[in-house]
Design goal:
The complex is a heterodimer of chains A (362) and B (181). Chain A is built from 8 helices and 8 strands; from the N terminus they run H-H-H-H-H-E-H-H-E-E-E-E-E-H-E-E. Chain A has 362 residues and is an alpha+beta fold. Chain A has a domain of 232 residues. Chain A has an 8-stranded antiparallel sheet. In chain A, helix 1 packs across helix 3 and helix 6 packs antiparallel against helix 7. The longest helix of chain A is centred in the middle third of the chain and has 24 residues. By secondary structure, chain B is mostly helical. Chain B folds into 2 domains: 110 residues, Orthogonal Bundle (Rna Polymerase Sigma Factor, Chain: A); 69 residues, Winged helix-like DNA-binding domain superfamily/Winged helix DNA-binding domain (Arc Repressor Mutant, subunit A), CATH 1.10.10. Chain B has 9 helices and no strands. In chain B, helix 1 crosses helix 2 and helix 2 crosses helix 4. The two termini of chain B are 29 Å apart. The chains are: A alpha+beta (362), B mainly alpha (181). At the A-B interface, helix 1, helix 3, helix 4 and helix 5 of A face helix 2, helix 3, helix 4, helix 5 and helix 6 of B.
């Protein structure tokens, strides 16, 4: 059985034309769906032949020195789950926050999952930011077969158009929040199975990020921060009208997140708040953490039937891992997956976004 | 240039922690990967950074390499490309001052690849590509080689983004059918 839509998604992922959000979802899907992962590998093999055409260019010798220097820190053997917390090969963050966040424990790190809104979401594309055009490099390698080269050669001498700026995460400007505690909130939204809808709805995420940031700062009661602490107090002088507008817009949004996940890395607890997810009789929702250093998703436990589920975070994940991970919710038999891996459909996914600066933006 | 079988052997040795094998693997593959990365990223510093990340990942994940699923170079380039594309899809500004460097790099690139140097698989792929309309060939190749986004392709061809999406999808599926799963 061949799902063309999913195969096309895998193909576009390998080709590189998915947006950043779509790529995150494809990567989450690869972790959770071996069939999709296999499709991706197939496309890498098919398209990978094109690499033969690329001109080889010698890198500077210092590159090897730097690689060699880091060999001792990373083990070349498979990581056992017990060693997960320590030895992780630390990848630089793929999404540098626009405001540099110092790694102080007292900072607020609301994490927003860039999951997909439901089918009714309004597609609001992120505003493109004009950027200077990139250099007029040779856009295609030499030596492509004549028929292709002839039709391409002339027009490809021009520089590529400016890249569209997708600001991730979106941050409200000129806000100086006073952060009371560190908490990470993750918003899980419904993932649709058809890639067509995925590409349309991805555009709405940027708008939702802005809405979410607004909520965190101006209507903290909507965000679960755990029973032991008070809400985040955000002082935003002169921004009250902005806050009111954002809160209202959130209420009018036709789709609400299915779950809101708050992670407190200091106390090592998490709270899952059921928002719009429907109760599924005879099934359990299970929460998973997907991180590049683990070969398989790690269960964070079954989500309870109450509105709030609070528990200690299982395992020894460090802050960097919790921040960089993708979170997913699958539908499992009662009591959770019997196998330790997701067995049911993955319904919601999302990632952490740091969206509240602790210092005023200059 | 090392033969495929040698590269497979080297990766196997790397999986056992053999640093000498890793150095030989690096020596055999670095120029190809760097060429791919420079073409997509444009800036040598970024390309160097992704080179480091990729080779460290190779060092760490060598045990996961399955020679029945991919050739060593394809496996490694896929890792490098994925990271490079992640970066270009997320970056929100292009710095102008580095561009002259990128241009110089392109000018020093190697001479064209002769037809006889092409692998059979590559010839087949190019034949399948050749069956597409010229514009569709362009967007597929620009996306793969230069890492262009749908938006950039749309601007370049003066075609709506949604049409680009549709064209890409159709073209890719046609390539799949042509190459015979």
């Amino acid at each position: 059985m061949y799902d063309d839509a999913q195969d096309a998604l895998a193909a576009e992922y390998v080709l590189g034309t998915l947006s950043a959000d779509e790529r995150e979802h494809a990567e989450a899907l690869m972790s959770l769906d071996p069939g999709f992962a296999a499709s991706v590998k197939q496309w890498e093999r098919r398209l990978g032949e094109l690499n033969v055409m690329v001109e080889a260019i010698e890198p500077p010798p210092e590159v090897w020195d730097k690689i060699k220097a880091q060999l001792g820190a990373s083990a070349p053997v498979p990581q056992s789950p017990a060693a997960a917390s320590g030895l992780a090969f630390s990848e630089p963050p793929a999404e540098p926050p626009p405001a540099a966040l110092p790694d102080a424990p007292a900072q607020e790190l609301p994490l927003l999952l860039a999951g997909e809104p439901g089918e009714d979401a309004i597609a609001v594309p992120p505003p493109p930011e004009p950027a200077p055009a990139e250099a007029a490099t040779d856009e295609l390698p030499h030596g492509l077969s004549d028929s292709i080269t002839a039709s391409l050669a002339k027009s490809l001498a021009e520089p590529p158009p400016p890249t569209e700026a997708v600001d991730r995460p979106m941050v409200l400007p000129a806000v100086e929040p006073r952060i009371e505690r560190s908490a990470n909130v993750v918003q899980l939204q419904r993932r649709v199975s058809r890639w067509r809808r995925m590409t349309v709805l991805m555009g709405a995420i940027a708008a939702l990020l802005a809405l979410y940031v607004g909520v965190a700062q101006f209507a903290p009661g909507l965000i679960p921060l755990g029973p032991r602490s008070g809400p985040v107090v955000a002082q935003a002088p002169g921004s009250a009208p902005l806050g009111a507008r954002l809160v209202a817009a959130l209420n009018q949004e036709p789709t609400a997140p299915a779950f809101l996940l708050t992670v407190d890395p200091q106390r090592r607890t998490m709270v899952v708040r059921r928002v719009s997810a429907t109760a599924e009789p005879g099934k359990s929702y299970e929460l998973w953490l997907i991180a590049s250093q683990f070969p398989a998703p790690r269960s964070l436990g079954v989500i309870g039937a109450d509105e709030f589920t609070e528990r200690a975070i299982p395992g020894n994940f460090d802050l960097a891992t919790l921040r960089a991970a993708t979170y997913a919710v699958s539908l499992e038999p009662p009591g959770g997956s019997p196998s330790g891996a997701p067995t049911g459909p993955v319904l919601f996914t999302g990632k952490v976004v740091e969206s509240v600066p602790t210092a005023p933006r200059t | 240039m090392l033969m495929q079988a040698e590269l497979v052997w080297l990766i196997g040795a790397v999986a056992n922690g053999d640093q000498a094998a890793f150095e030989r693997l690096y020596a055999a593959t670095r120029a190809k990967l760097y060429g791919v990365l420079l073409r997509i990223l444009g800036k040598p510093e970024l390309a160097e950074e992704v080179m480091q990340e990729t080779y460290l990942k190779v060092w760490k994940m060598a045990h996961t390499f399955d020679p029945t699923l991919a050739s060593p170079i394809t496996w490694m380039v896929a890792m490098a490309r994925n990271r490079a594309i992640d970066i270009v899809r997320r970056r929100s500004e292009v710095s102008i001052e580095d561009e002259p460097e990128a241009q110089n790099v392109a000018a020093e690139s190697a001479p064209p690849l002769a037809r006889r140097e092409m692998t059979e698989e590559l010839k087949r792929l190019l034949a399948c590509l050749g069956k597409l309309d010229p514009e569709k060939q362009r967007i597929v190749l620009l996306a793969y080689y230069s890492g262009w986004s749908r938006e950039q392709l749309s601007t370049k061809l003066d075609i709506p983004v949604n049409t680009i999406k549709t064209w890409l999808r159709r073209s890719l599926l046609e390539i799949r059918e042509c190459m015979g799963r």
